[in-house]
Amino acid sequence: MHFVTILGSTGSIGESTLDVISQHPEKYTIYALTGCRQLQKLAQQSVQFKAKYAVVTDESSAKQLTNLIQDLKGTTEVIFGVDALSEVAANSQVDIVMAAIVGAAGLLPTLSAVKTGKKVLLANKESLVMAGSIFMSAVKQYGATLLPIDSEHNAIFQCLPHNYKDSHQSAISKLILSASGGPFRTWNIEKIAEATPAQACAHPNWSMGNKISIDSASMMNKGLECIEAKWLFDTSMDKIEVLIHPQSIVHSLVQYIDGSVLAQLGNPDMRTPIAHGLAWPQRLSSGVADLNLSEIAQLTFEQPDLTKFPCLQLAYNAAQAGGDAPAVLNAANEVAVQAFLDTRVGFTAIPQIVEKTLESFNFYEPESLAAVQESDNRARVTAESVIKRSES
Ligand code: NDP
Ligand code: MG
Fold this sequence. Notes:
Blueprint lengths: L1 E6 L4 H11 L5 E7 L4 H10 L4 E4 L2 H13 L5 E4 L1 H9 L5 E4 L7 H8 L4 E4 L2 H18 L2 E4 L2 H9 L4 H4 L4 E8 L9 H5 L3 H5 L8 H9 L1 H13 L7 E5 L5 E7 L4 E5 L5 H9 L13 H4 L13 H12 L3 H17 L7 H11 L9 H23 L1
Parallel strand pairs: 1-2, 1-5, 2-3, 3-4, 5-6, 6-7, 8-9
Antiparallel strand pairs: 8-10, 10-11
Helix pairs in contact: 2-3, 4-5, 5-6, 6-12, 6-16, 11-16, 12-15, 15-17, 16-17, 16-18, 17-18
Bound molecules: NADPH dihydro-nicotinamide-adenine-dinucleotide phosphate (NDP) and magnesium ion.
The site of magnesium ion (MG) has 4 residues, from α7.
């Protein structure tokens, strides 16, 4: 029996993880579930899965959640705060942690799981973008098993040989990340400038949380994923390519020096990479329907348009600049996306805010987590002041 903590169980990845786990009660027991604002959902999940702990961010949410769980006659104990998140990720009873909190808030608890040598299923790409060097050193130092859940990285992981870092890295000529192109792929720049949050969140193939949906529409998501791939697969940015594939069936590809290209295919449903991560190195049924290629009939591919989607280029540049540039990019993007969701700025302001924030920094190599947090905080303040200036 495996004991699982799901960081961010009330989100899209969290719910899909619980869906897969509910199909295999003989294999997985929930130790802890965590949420932030959706307390009713967290209470219901905690009772249904008989979680030992439910974690929220603050005391007042904890009081509300305790009452909701009592109403449902549940026995889950409620705890709160950043330390509580880290504690349920690091507890010795737990052997698998799904890291599915969105954004920078996921970094500390995910690292706590890494530092206790657990099997960590990584959905929270922002933690690698922010602190890739520190994060990957910790994976190595503490012997954690890091399994990518982001569909592209999970696909690449499946197409790589085991222990490829030791003996096969020179055999790989390219990692090719698929991208759907998002809801605005066929829109012109003028129409994109008028896009509303609802339009940006209406992803053609995937149902996801708001933040990653906006990132997909701006293609910042693919930029973050290039940085994520660089760290996960210990490779340079010039070996990473993005390929637009609107059907989201080919989840990514690995090109070898002999001309072979291996790809992983499947219906666009996150339960596939989640089941892969949970069961690895075995396999587990996920509830995802069989892929019917004759029904899909056509798979198409095209180059990304960097003029229409400048976020992709910004992320590439930040990765090349190195140091704290990706952390600054990530923080500025989080602030810009929230401002767009709050209808304070238009869609095309997102890359502008990120670019202006990056321009005001002299990048350096953050040696500690505190230094990363400091860059993250400064970038948030700068991005906010860029927004304020545009509002006045
Ligand atoms: P959601 O927005 O659906 O869920 C986010 C989760 O994080 C929720 O449980 C939310 O709680 C919790 N949360 C939000 N803010 C905080 C905070 N400050 N402190 C603690 N918990 C918090 O996001 P997704 O599930 O879509 O994405 C999660 C992560 O997985 C992201 O990093 C995303 O990039 C990545 N990912 C997602 C994919 C997808 O298909 N959805 C695909 C690939 C990667 P609550 O809802 O209760 O407020
Ligand atoms: Mg992805």
